[in-house]
Amino acid sequence: MASEDVKTSESAVNTIVNLAEEAKLAREGVNAPSHAVLSICKSLVAGGVAGGVSRTAVAPLERLKILLQVQNPHNIKYNGTIQGLKYIWGTEGFRGLFKGNGTNCARIVPNSAVKFFSYEQASQGILWLYQQQTGKEDAELTPVLRLGAGACAGIIAMSATYPMDMVRGRITVQTDKSPYQYRGMFHALSTVLREEGPRALYKGWLPSVIGVIPYVGLNFAVYESLKDWLIKSKPFGLIEDSELSVTTRLACGAAAGTIGQTVAYPLDVIRRRMQMVGWNNAASVVAGDGKVKAPLEYTGMIDAFRQTVRHEGFGALYKGLVPNSVKVVPSIALAFVTYEVVKDILGVEIRISD
């Protein structure tokens, strides 16, 4: 796995270098359409790199969160963040901490690329409509408008990559003792498609879309609005010019991620549980005696909420919140900062704050 990560990193660096060289040529005399296409490609690459870096950095916590979300209440294996990580290390070793990360990156790289690019396009379109409506050419995006642009970006990115997210959840949950093993993302996709049908690839899509509206929307709205406020008000003498330091931007991203994930977390739990429906060999639904104590069968999102609260209490909607909170702070912060830094390296003229 380490070698695969190194190869992926080298490939990403080479892509960035090539795009930077092409950008230099573009500034020296390439026509406008070619320059526009190059700018779009660079923006997508920046978003993809941001997603890959941020998710790999917190992969062990991401896996533990999912295991906590879907574990059987009759066979508790993971009782908390530290105990859960130690249990994974003891039973599966170092590789167990990163199980499913390759599939996760295969999903999050295009998801992040589409999300950041969609936000830029949506925010530009919404700003133009707002300026036309108010008659003020110098009008700026409000926090509510940024929330709307972020929600649009989240829905587009989630829908485009949802099947990969679905199988990533199953690969993350399985262990070496699972009766049936998915060998990888494509094997999982083909197996689910063959055994459960095309609709199975979109199990849990509705709570995902509903959850992504406040989650991604708040991420972008809080991050951009907080940055804008810091630049304009210059509180506590933190800002000396119009540029924020990397540390300050990391803090803005951490605040944005914490608020967004807290609001949307129950929907993420329901999404994961719905994704496990139909997977009879999932390790999470098999109790210690080998018998299925609580089969995962939901008729829909509302039923999943109702059954979860009735059988396990309201607190079950926040299972895995602690490792997720620890994960979200560096993950979202790294994603935003990496995106802006890579765009600076590539020489992209437009940044999300603009």
Automatic annotation (TrEMBL):
Domain of life: Eukaryota
Topology of this chain in the membrane: Multi-pass membrane protein
GO biological process annotation, one example: transmembrane transport
Alphabetical list of InterPro entries matching this protein: MCP, MCP_dom_sf, MCP_transmembrane
Location in or out of the cell: Mitochondrion inner membrane
GO cellular component: mitochondrial inner membrane
Entry keywords, A to Z: Membrane, Mitochondrion, Mitochondrion inner membrane, Repeat, Transmembrane, Transmembrane helix, Transport
The keyword Transmembrane appears for this protein: yes
Gene3D superfamilies according to UniProt: Mitochondrial carrier domain
Solcar repeats: 38-125, 141-229, 244-345
Family from the record: Belongs to the mitochondrial carrier (TC 2.A.29) family.
PANTHER family in alphabetical order: SOLUTE CARRIER FAMILY 25
The protein, known as: Mitochondrial adenine nucleotide transporter like
